[in-house]
């Protein structure tokens, strides 16, 4: 299994208090990400060694979660600041060919010498600042946009596409509502705070404590100010 993460990754913390339950990745800015033990599985429910996995900083998936890979071309991408609940399931493929005589995988049961190659989903992607409720299941090829919430036990069907900051629930998952009004969502997407260093988030933490749903004009004023701080910091980072 090829595990990819941020450029400022520093080490795996074997002595962290989470380490009995997770592989703990640490970063030079003090952040950590967590991958649950036994996460990478194959169709035999054994530890998988094929495929690709990317996780951004400050993301974690809950204990008992699995990602099932069937081949080395499959990829699960988890962005930054993603919060995953217990016993999540990411089924990256597991398709059978529907266009031939039988859906049976003859090559696995000894009934015949071979079968058509299984179709493949594209990469399964969770962008940034996504919250995934307990026991949610994702089938392959979906893209979950920034700021989304996926309800507990939701089923994300193959090639599912969300909208930014949507709240999705049910089986199959459907849009329930948006977290914020349209103008607030536009401001948050423009700021893209997850692309900023953790030190910048710490320095501007007061902005992250504001209720963005009650007093919209005030929320937009604060987001405009945060956007200006982000722009100034980006210029400073670019010059350093």
Beta-strand portion reads: 15-25%
Overall outline: globular
What is the CATH architecture term of the largest domain? 3 Solenoid
Largest sheet: 5 strands, parallel
N-to-C terminal Cα separation, in Å?
A: 36 Å
Total helical segments: 4
Return the CATH class of the largest domain.
Mainly Beta
The CATH superfamily of the largest domain turns out to be Hexapeptide repeat proteins
> In sequence order, what are the helices and strands, one letter per element?
EEEEEEEEEEHEEEEEEEEHHH
Which terms summarize this structure?
single chain; 240 residues; alpha/beta; UDP N-Acetylglucosamine Acyltransferase, domain 1; 2 domains; 5-stranded parallel beta sheet; 4 helices; 18 strands; globular
Topology readout:
Blueprint: E1 2-4, E2 9-12, E3 22-27, E4 32-36, E5 40-41, E6 52-55, E7 66-68, E8 75-78, E9 83-84, E10 89-91, H1 106-109, E11 124-126, E12 131-132, E13 137-139, E14 143-144, E15 149-150, E16 155-156, E17 166-169, E18 174-178, H2 182-191, H3 198-203, H4 216-239
Parallel strand pairs: 1-6, 5-7, 6-8, 7-10, 8-11, 9-12, 10-13, 11-14, 12-15, 13-16, 15-17
Antiparallel strand pairs: 2-3, 3-4, 17-18
Helix pairs in contact: 2-4
